[in-house]
Amino acid sequence: ETGVTQSPTHLIKTRGQQVTLRCSSQSGHNTVSWYQQALGQGPQFIFQYYREEENGRGNFPPRFSGLQFPNYSSELNVNALELDDSALYLCASSPAQRRDTGELFFGEGSRLTVL
Amino acid sequence: AQRVTQPEKLLSVFKGAPVELKCNYSYSGSPELFWYVQYSRQRLQLLLRHISRESIKGFTADLNKGETSFHLKKPFAQEEDSAMYYCALMNNAGNMLTFGGGTRLMVKP
């Protein structure tokens, strides 16, 4: 069983640029959540996708957007990058029948540095 | 708004000593709380959830609604318990976990 995979693992961008991060959910999981983890802090919820629709959003501006595809993989897009967007971005998936049980299966993350 | 606070960034104990990692929460609804753990060079993973009332790897956590706490305890720490521990609170909609800032546990030999 393949776990959650994310790409790229590391990337460097400059202020004002746009970035797309990708996530493949674990087999059999149809719910994907994205979290931002700044250095020294806990993960912070960005949004969740379920059956290709946004199913909840945290306190992030609209320049953070996402997509979920029919195969349940997902993308996180961030426009007009700011220095404070530098963080580890975590993707987590969960199976349909346990979508709301709090058990998330995390990827290793994509570390974004904005210069 | 929901909030989770872990007051200790670092907790250092000797092997065999008791461990208590503190977690306090703020939430107006009925809380569902979890402990997640991240071992060195591994992914963040679920350790235990309060609703299951289970003991995992010797760890237990009791929900105290009066004190709004969900402290993680283990009577005898092992070196392999060294990791980053995060307390998390699920919202009523069941789609958002709010994490605390984390506590790094170091168990010395």
Q: What key attributes describe this structure?
A:
heterodimer, A: 115 residues, mainly beta, seven-stranded mixed sheet, four-stranded antiparallel sheet, 0% helix, B: 109 residues, six-stranded mixed sheet, three-stranded antiparallel sheet
Draw up the topology in text:
The complex is a heterodimer of chains A (115) and B (109).
Chain A: E1 5-7, E2 10-13, E3 19-24, E4 29-37, E5 44-50, E6 53-57, E7 64-68, E8 74-78, E9 87-95, E10 105-106, E11 110-114
Parallel strand pairs in A: 2-11
Antiparallel strand pairs in A: 1-3, 3-8, 4-5, 4-9, 5-6, 7-8, 9-10, 9-11
Chain B: E1 3-5, E2 10-14, E3 19-21, E4 24-26, E5 32-38, E6 45-49, E7 60-64, E8 69-74, E9 83-90, E10 97-99, E11 103-108
Parallel strand pairs in B: 2-11
Antiparallel strand pairs in B: 1-4, 3-8, 5-6, 5-9, 7-8, 9-10, 9-11
How many helical stretches of chain A? Answer: 0
CA-based shape of chain B:
globular
Number of helices of chain B: 0
Overall strand count of chain A: 11
Helix/strand-derived category of chain A reads mainly beta
Number of strands of chain B: 11
Instruction: Write the H/E string of chain A, N to C.
Output: EEEEEEEEEEE
Terminal CA distance of chain B reads 41 Å
Q: Using a beta-carbon cutoff below 8 angstroms, give the protein chain pair with the largest interface and the number of residues from each chain.
A: A-B, 26 and 23 residues
Measure the end-to-end span of chain A: 37 Å
Uncertain residue segments of chain B: none
How much strand of chain A? over 45%
What is the N-to-C order of secondary-structure elements of chain B (H for helix, E for strand)?
A: EEEEEEEEEEE
Largest sheet of chain A: 7 strands, mixed
Q: Tell me about the biggest sheet of chain B?
A: 6 strands, mixed
Shape of chain A: globular
C-alpha Rg of chain B (nearest Å): 13 Å
Helix content of chain B: under 10%
Structural class of chain B: mainly beta
Radius of gyration of chain A: 13 Å
